[in-house]
Amino acid sequence: MPTPTPVVLDCDPGHDDAIAILLAAGSPEIDLRAITTVAANQTLDKVTLNARRICSAAGIPVPIARGCAQPLVRPLYVAEDIHGASGMDGPSFGSISVDVVEDHAIDVMHANMPCTLVATGALTNVAMYLQRYGTTAVREIVLMGGSTERGNTTPYAEFNIYVDPEAAAIVFASGVPVTMIGLNVTHRALVTPAVVARLNALGPLGRTCGELMTFFAATYREVFGFDAPPLHDPVAVARVIDPSLVTCVEAFVGIETTGTFTRGATVVDLQGRLGRTPNARVAVDLDVDGFFDLVIDAVARLT
Ligand code: RIB
Ligand code: CA
Q1: Which residues pair with 144 in a beta bridge?
Q2: Tens of pLDDT along the chain (303 residues)?
Q3: Which of 1, 12, 68, 251 could form a disulfide with 124 if both were Cys (CB 3.0 to 4.6 A apart)?
Q4: How far apart are CA 127 and CA 80, in angstroms?
Q5: Whole-number Å distance between alpha carbons of 208 and 245
Q6: Ligand 1: which atom is nearest the Cα of residue 186?
Q7: What's the 38 CA to ligand 2 centre distance in angstroms?
């Protein structure tokens, strides 16, 4: 077994973020050093409580640190239509045994360097970390966000980038190795009833995951007309665990911050038309069966 990869997971739980936390904590290939929270799917208080809830349910004793409550320059835009008023509607969670640490998320990131930053929410914390501590200690940033095709929040913007496009622009221009896991790939990771059945068969934690996915399926059907919800955020974690599962290409990615209709769009120059130096590895394919095997195995290890 190669040395586990040190990771700080920056997230906005969030149904799919919750599964990303379980995948990271339940995989021996990852040394999950800390979880940091950022306002996006819901307010900072709500996403932080949700991180505490899922870590308590799974017995994950990893430090949880609060980050930014607002995007860098824009008002917060939440996804209540998708994740509900709590940000993680569906299951009822038991007592909370995991607390938050006093330090700010970016200081916890700094304390755990060198490491890989996996970001599954708005990029506010990551951008703030880079501005405060520089780029030399970060091994890689693997983020769920953007798309090589259309968006989900607006026609051309994916939610995590849409919430804080200025932060995303800082991250993609930073020079740190960035891997972008976009909707073009995560929309293939559909949590079908067969996947839910595999989760439910794992016992109480698996059933909690099943309940999360049942709520997520209902909102994705209502809002987007999906037959099954896409498990976005764990794909970023899976890329760290086994890069062979997620095929990537080098490309220049421009972040639109001023467009009238295109705020938050990720302009992925797959053919090099703009003559700009590639600044990211962009996911273009996913081994879906291998991905869900990772997820099921990780939840089973935590049960
Ligand atoms: O667009 C999908 C992304 O937005 C996921 O990270 C989901 O949790 C939401 O944050
Ligand atoms: Ca998320």
Answers
A1: 181
A2: 789 999 999 999 999 999 999 999 999 999 999 999 999 999 999 999 999 999 999 999 999 999 999 999 999 999 999 999 999 999 999 999 999 999 999 999 999 999 999 999 999 999 999 999 999 999 999 999 999 999 999 999 999 999 999 999 999 999 999 999 999 999 999 999 999 999 999 999 999 999 999 999 999 999 999 999 999 999 999 999 999 999 999 999 999 999 999 999 999 999 999 999 999 999 999 999 999 999 999 999 999
A3: 68
A4: 24
A5: 26
A6: 2
A7: 9
Ligand 1: nearest atom to the Cα of 232 = 5
Cα separations in angstroms, 36 against 92, 121, 130: 23, 10, 15
Provide the whole-model pTM. Answer: 0.98
Kindly list the protein residues whose Cβ atom lies closer than 6 A to any atom of ligand 1: 12, 14, 16-17, 40-41, 79, 120-121, 144, 152, 158-160, 232-233
Q: Which residue has the CA at smallest separation from atom 10 of ligand 1? A: 121
Spatial separation of the C-alpha atoms in residues 262 and 23, rounded to whole Å: 33
232 is catalytic: yes
Q: Are 251 and 271 in contact (CB under 8 A)?
A: no
Asked, as a colleague might, if the bond just before 114 is cis with ω within 30 of 0, I would say yes
CATH architecture of structural domain 5-302: Alpha-Beta Complex (3.90)
